[in-house]
Amino acid sequence: MRHAVHLVGVVVVLLTLAMPRAVRAEDVETLRRQLDTMQRELEAATKRYERQIQELGERLRQLESRPAPPSVAAPPAPAAPATATPPTAATVATPAGTSPAAGADTPSLAQILTPRQPFALAQPGRTLLFDIGVSGDFVADFTSAERERHRDGTFAGRENRLFPREVSVGFFGRVDPYASAVVRITAGEETPPPGERSRGDLEVAVEEANVTLLALPLGTTARLGRMRPRFGTLNPVHQDDLPQVDRPQVLTRFFGEEQLDAEDGIDAFWILPLPVYEEISIGVFNGDNETAFGRGTLRDPLVLGRLRTFVEGEDWGGLQIDLSAGTGATDDQRRNTVAGVGVKYKWAPLTGFPLMTLAGEAIYGHRAADRWGYYVYAQYDWTRRWAAGLRWDWTEVPRLNGYEWAISPYVQFKPSEFLRFRVQYKHTEGTRDLARAIDELFLQGSFILGAHPTERF
Predict the structure, then answer these.
(1) Is this prediction's pTM over 0.85?
(2) Which of 2, 39, 204, 287 has its CA 20 to 30 A from that of 231?
């Protein structure tokens, strides 16, 4: 019996010592199987990813080696300042080895007639850090032989000519997170001296070259360099974006054919913290405009200021009011002070058309004597492509006696936002020093390639 008890004890001890080893052996085997499973899954995933990478690389090589079809010749518009539309799947070329839809390489008549968006040069993944835009504005002026002899029409010295008024190349974009810049180079047929006729010579100039500082204290934004000053309603508008073919008489009589343009200086503006949009700006410039100022020195600079208000209603449209003033020295050491008020109203239904525009601007100037003038116009866009308008001008002329008036009906056709044609008739009459009667017919064609800043309102 004693031996049996001893035998049972030995068996219990041996089983106790053997059980952990068996459990440990079972755990090791389980972990080994899990590790083998994970390794097989990792190898399968690696092969799958390698195969996908090879397929994508082959697809990319095929796309790069295949020429783009005609239907993708014009990518969408850029983002800033104009809104860019990213390419869609329809604009990507079909890779080699696949079967494109019938007729994909040959554009249909509808595709040919559909207006295309300009090129976008600042899309993600591109190397350019700025946008490039090209615009062209061509005008034909038809008038009588008498006016051609006197060379006193709207485009003096270019009567009965087709001429490039302005062809420009613009570069603009962000310099860094704190600044943006604009450079605009223009070329146009030279305005001949008074009494002479144009010989077709082109004048190339840097019309704009300025940097805008975006992060100044108190929410201030400032521009430094060469620019179109913020003065009045139409002065900041480039030639190809004017509402009519020519600038109103009061503006050309007071400031010249291109108004205040290519002024060197600095200006700053603030958006006031008010319930409605209120923008106030002030600028200091050399004053190189020969028609109105011309002293051209910061010892006696041209100082300009403007207050612009914009109110938008849900049902009745949008209204803009601007008040402008400026003072500067003339080339004969006199003081010239100018002031202006402009109003612009637009109404359109929720669908966008028809669109009605009413606008006007009055300018007062004191040089040797008080002079003033104004213009008003109305334009009706009954579709996105077709519009018609009428402008009335009345103005006195600085340093001359008398006044002149003009009436100008016009029709506009826009196949797209980047191509525009106009026909405008203009009848002008004057009194005293301005006594004459002129009938003129203008034809205008303007286009845009690439990025183009959108004119506000």
Answers:
(1) no
(2) 204
Please say if the pLDDT value at position 4 is more than 90. no
Give a yes or no: residue 199 inside a domain: yes
Rg (CA), the chain: 35
Q: What is the DSSP letter of 146?
A: H
What confidence score (pLDDT) does residue 118 get? 43
State the residue range of the domain holding 212: 131-450
In 98-216, which ranges are continuous DSSP H helix? Answer: 109-113, 145-150
Phi, psi at residue 181, to the nearest 5°? -145, 155
Query: By percentage, how much of the chain surpasses pLDDT 70?
Result: 77
CA atoms within 13 A on the CB side of 265: 26
CATH number at residue 299: 2.40.160.10
Residues 388-406: pLDDT tens digits?
999 999 999 998 999 999 9
Over the range 255-287, which residues count as b (16 or more CB within 10 Å of their CB) and which as e?
Answer: bbbbbbbbbbbebbbbeeeeeeeebbbbbbbbb
Tokens of 276: 């409605």
Q: Which SS3 state, helix, strand or coil, does residue 46 take?
A: helix
Reduced to 3 states (helix: H, G, I; strand: E, B; else coil), residue 314 is coil
Q: How far apart are CA 298 and CA 265, in angstroms?
A: 9
Give domain status of residue 98, yes or no.
Answer: no
Give me the half-sphere count of Cα atoms (radius 13 Å) on the Cβ side of residue 317: 16
pLDDT per residue over 117-158, tens digit each?
A: 444 444 555 555 788 999 999 999 999 999 999 898 999 999
